[in-house]
Amino acid sequence: MIPDWAAERRSMVDAQLIRRGIRDKRVLDAMREIPREEFLPIEARVTAYSDAPIGIGFGQTISQPYMTALMAECLELSGEERVLEVGSGCGYAAAVLGRLAHEVITVEIVPELAELARSNLRRTGHGANVQVVDGDGGWGYASGAPYDAISVAAAAPDVPAALLEQLNDPGYLAIPVGTREDQELRILRKRWGRIQSRIATLCRFVPLRGGEGWR
Ligand code: SAH
């Protein structure tokens, strides 16, 4: 039997997002619309709306739906923004961000995953305003800067300086920072030349690779 994906999406939004305090209507609508199952390997699709990260190959995961929604909400997108994502993975979060902002550039360090993200975005019709770039996103992507919002989908030992430089003023940066095992999701806000930081939640992401990751 083919699952009723739209119904699964609706109950995920109610049980996992609204119940835990996600309020932004645009974020909730995007998560009700974007077919998360289409971004997963065929054999993982039945678990598409479970309350957990899921393997997508190459030792990487698609984030838990709540984490994708929380990060998107913390960026306070209105639809006009240019957004940088670090860590495209399967492209799902990029599709969500693309639905919430004007334009998204997403950088992926594993070439096979960059290609997977590109084909998933194209196939689902969410690729029109999302550009997938191969590279080490720990250095940001200078040729597209500045960005009104930056979302980092892998954990870092510290906030990479290049990302703060490439963040517009005003702008928001969401990034998991901590040890390889445990992190806090930090929301940095640049405004009037100053940086404010708060912690949105505790979390566990896959480690950032490349020059700004752990040795
Ligand atoms: N947003 C993704 C989640 C991907 S998990 C989704 O919705 O599926 C984190 C991703 O970050 C992995 O694909 C990993 O390969 C990638 N990554 C890790 N370090 C990176 C780096 N320095 N630059 C770009 N991508 C990186």
Report the structural category: alpha/beta
CATH arch. level architecture: 3-Layer(aba) Sandwich
CATH superfamily: Vaccinia Virus protein VP39
Global geometry: globular
CATH topology: Rossmann fold
Report the sheet-strand fraction: 25-35%
How many strand segments?
9
What order do the strands of the largest sheet run in, or round the barrel if closed? 5-4-3-6-7-8-9
**Which CATH class?**
Alpha Beta
Mean pLDDT: 97
Estimated helix fraction: 25-40%
What Rg, in angstroms, do the CA atoms define? 16 Å
Question: What is bound: which ligands?
Answer: S-adenosyl-L-homocysteine
Number of helices: 6
Q: Unreliable stretches, pLDDT < 50, 5 or more residues?
A: none
Whole-Å distance between the termini? 47 Å
Would you list the SSEs in sequence order as H and E? Answer: HHEEHEHEHEEHEEE
Q: Tell me about the biggest sheet? A: 7 strands, mixed
